[in-house]
Write a structure and sequence with these properties.
Chains A, B: This is Putative phosphoenolpyruvate synthase regulatory protein. The structure is a homodimer. Chain A is an alpha/beta fold. Chain A has 10 helices and 8 strands.
């Protein structure tokens, strides 16, 4: 294995955009080992010079020049960083100019816009969505269900909770979730409290084999985790969802991002990605 | 107000990277109204042509050409989309070429790498972090605290829960959180179960005025929410944290992203941003 390359994420804000961008790019070079260094809150020329010192040290240690992915709003700070001997991919300097030309206006060059609290109302709504989602996990309450943007249903351990939290944190979506349990299958009906929110329901299903695997980690050697029981529950849940006309998705080989992207399209929710 | 411009997020995967990047750019043009259209899973030339049809319709309605932010791994699909009459900011075509030159290797051009389940182990670890964080919210259990990456402490409603969930969802960090309550202040000591994890503790504080505001929404006219009580609790919590040598941060005007970025640096955690 060759020595790792160092990649710096430099930002005048949190650096989360820079890191998301960089990880997306690096995932296209999976044979290469990268050492990642975060440098958030670089909001002055002096701090940019500190970065250059660290970039130089990494270059000497690695024997090759580092890569820098940056999101620097200030042209002065960006210019200072360009003195570094590195491949610098500066997101704003590449994309802001064509956008300014297209929109016929100058950008505001304001630091900390995308992950700060620039818009307090939007921010507070998102925190409220996180609190709502947490309070409505696993069907613990029927209160305020009319305030939800979506209600996820599915058998225990089909992926409802991580998906709900992802929707809340990343998109500010109020996502309640409800388990479908053996009693629902016996009655072959939705839990009564959900009937009037049918248009908000979205189902998750999962392969019985994967479900048994996940459940075994929690409760080894239980009926709950047995493949026979998992098959019966998944089958009953799918029958119920089909009968009730609920849209659903198989989560078996999907990430929470993929489930979320599909769900947002299908349910028609307008969340903003943060 | 001028008519809204339409901006399309086009991706062969979830589109979450495209949307995050676009929102970061658009936040620099806050005087302009944008109408956002998500187009995830555009993984064929035929689907790219469907996009072009929608882009044309938006151009006619808006009376100005749309903006397209895209993350298309396939050169064929990207080329097909370039036929659209729009300002196209294609993120991969701009950044991948210089990276290939720098790294002396071709990229893999694999779709769905950054937000899929390409790396099952990393993905499963992250889901486990979400479950761990949820199970360790608000000090509900002392079990497995040694497995945590960080333990947040602070008075009730100082921002611990949203921050913990953000750390788990975005970075795959196992974040427990513990409320500091009047009994802790009376004893002027940390809750006993936390003593041996001092190196993992990170405190949040908040201005008493903002705290009272948040608490009043939950329990109006309560002692809990009174400004006198909030002042006393915040004061006692800060004294306790100072005495115990716990690093802390004022969350009053900070977003969960800003708190997370600072915390990760200070505690020295290696999470990956998703």
């Amino acid at each position: 294995m060759t020595a790792a390359r160092t990649i710096f994420f430099v930002s005048d804000g949190t650096g989360i955009t820079a890191e998301t961008l960089a990880n997306s790019l690096l995932s296209q070079f999976d044979a290469i080992q990268f050492r990642q260094v975060r440098m958030p809150f670089v909001d002055s020329v002096a701090k940019a010079r500190d970065c250059i010192t660290q970039i130089r040290a990494a270059a000497e240690r690695d024997g090759q020049r580092p890569i820098v992915v940056s999101t620097l709003v200030s042209p002065q700070v960006a210019a200072a960083l360009r003195e570094a001997d590195a491949l610098i991919l500066d997101f704003f300097s590449i994309f802001i100019a064509p956008l300014e030309a297209e929109l016929g206006t100058r950008s505001t060059h304001t630091i900390g816009r995308s992950h700060g609290r620039a818009n307090a109302k939007t921010y507070d709504d998102r925190i409220e969505a996180i609190n709502f989602t947490l309070a409505h996990d696993d069907g613990v309450t029927d209160n305020d269900l009319d305030m939800s943007d979506v209600i996820l249903v599915g058998v225990s351990r089909s992926g409802k909770t991580p998906t709900s939290l992802y929707l809340a944190v990343q998109f500010g979506i109020k996502a309640a979730n409800y388990p479908l349990i053996p009693e629902d299958f016996e009655r072959n009906r939705l839990p009564g409290s959900l009937e009037k929110y049918r248009h908000k329901l979205f189902g998750l299903t999962i392969s019985p084999e994967r479900l048994a695997e996940i459940r075994r980690e929690r409760r080894p050697d239980s009926t709950y985790a047995s493949i026979a029981n998992c098959r019966a529950e998944v089958d009953a849940a799918q029958k119920l969802m089909r009968r009730e006309g609920i849209r659903w998705l198989d989560s078996t080989s999907k990430s929470i991002e993929e489930i979320a992207a599909t769900l947002i399209q299908e349910v028609g929710i307008n969340g903003k990605a943060f």
